[in-house]
Amino acid sequence: MARVAGCDPRAGAGDGLATVAGIATDALSARLDRIASSRSQANREFFETEAERLATCCHEMAERFARGGKLVAMGSSPAARSDARHVAVEFVHPVIVGKRALPAIALAGEGGALDRQLEAVAEPDDIAIAFEVSDPQTADALRRARGLGCLTIAFEPGPAEWEFEPGSADTTIRQELVETLYHVLWELVHVFFDHRGLLAGREAGPVHDTGASSFLYPFLSESEHDLDGVVADVRKSILMKAEEVGALREQTLGENRGTLLAAAADLRRNRDVRAKVLALGNGGSATDAMDIVADLRAAGWRAIDLTEDASILTAIANDIGTEEIFQRQVIAYGRSGDIAVALSTSGNSANIIEAVGEARRRELKTVAFVGYDGGRVAGEGLADHVVITRSQHIPRIQEAQASAYHALVELAAEA
To answer: What is d(CA 154, CA 165) in angstroms, rounded to the nearest whole number?
Structure first.
């Protein structure tokens, strides 16, 4: 790991850290504590308030999917686009064994006016989920979707039937809560497919007796006709998932305190000399790369999203191999003094490993956000700063990683 002058990046808040870009690290460490505590409180309050409504919304979504509907996610700003693409990839490409693929598509600002894009794909049984409906064109598209008969979901006041508005004024906290929310919708909509009798027009299937394991999977033993009972159990599961990610955020921000402070110092120096940040990841982590680039650009950094150009990605993947899709771009854009930020839930993705290796050869600083036990990236010390989120549950990893990279940008801007 890289060291800040006079600072061991593995040290805790009370270990006499010196300075990060001229600011006492104990002040930045205290800032990190506030970042963590504000998220814990907001997470707890939001999901305690909304769990029952979310459970009912899951059932309505399952009804739509059962009738052949699809999810249409919309967002026009750079940050909203990252969420729209994230929720779509989760539904269409499930990463949890046993979850079925459900049809989904993301509509983003680069495709033109959202309402025109919507008209090309939307049908009455679809589900439209919109991010940042304060944007007039997004609100217009959502209003159009509702007029077509789509089930509509949003996260601030507007034309949606279902509105789940986080109470925090902090935009990054709001985004993190919304990410957990749509992950929960994706995870738990499947529960109702396991109870065919609870979906209109579908016959009940056999009821399973889970016996001694019922406390782990309560909804598997419910009656096919007990909708209230299943909704109640889905509500409990939502609260458990919210508690899980709250604890994981605390672990990620606390255990990686020194690493985040050291990475913030490098990131600040990078901005001061007008160097670039290159961000990369696969699948849901690709949308996190989109998000961190949006945040960095808004805060004054020069940043490039290596997941953005489909023609480059598909050309390299087709002609050379998927392992090279980011490495070739690091070669093209990376210069000494730049920073490569890699996101991976496993820490083992071949194209991530190739990219951070190339970045080091070209004297870029490297920051990696990884899950599980850190995989090869952590085990082999392949990046200068490795932030590990210790979980095996991919949605929770990504949610905690969002808190970590939001904290990194905030600390670097503060330093």
So the answer is: 8
Write phi, then psi, for 365 (nearest 5 degrees): -75, 150
Tell me how many degrees the CA angle 397-398-402 measures, rounded to the nearest 5. 120
Rounded distance, CA 370 to CA 367, Å?
Answer: 10
pTM of the predicted protein model? 0.88
Give the DSSP per-residue string, 263-312: HHHHHHHHHHTT-EEEEEESTHHHHHHHHHHHHHHHTT-EEEETT--HHH
Cα dihedral sign, 84-175-102-198: negative
Q: Are strands 339-344 and 365-370 parallel, antiparallel or unpaired?
A: parallel
| Vertex 186 angle, CA 183 and 187, to 5° | 85
In tens, the pLDDT along 201-258 reads: 444 444 444 344 444 444 444 445 578 888 999 999 999 999 999 999 999 999 999 9
Phi, psi of 388 (to 5 degrees): -105, 125
Are 150 and 72 a contacting pair, CB within 8 Å?
A: yes
Give the C-alpha separation, 218 to 211, whole Å: 10
Q: Is the pLDDT of residue 190 over 80?
A: yes
Instruction: Give the Å distances, CA to CA, from 288 to 4, 57, 305.
Output: 26, 25, 10
CA gap 401, 333 in Å, rounded: 25
DSSP H helices in 135-283: 136-148, 171-193, 227-255, 257-272
SS3 of residue 72 by DSSP: strand
Nearest to 89 by CA among 247, 241, 290, 320: 290
How far from 208 is each of 217, 221, 237, 311, CA to CA, in Å? Answer: 11, 5, 19, 48
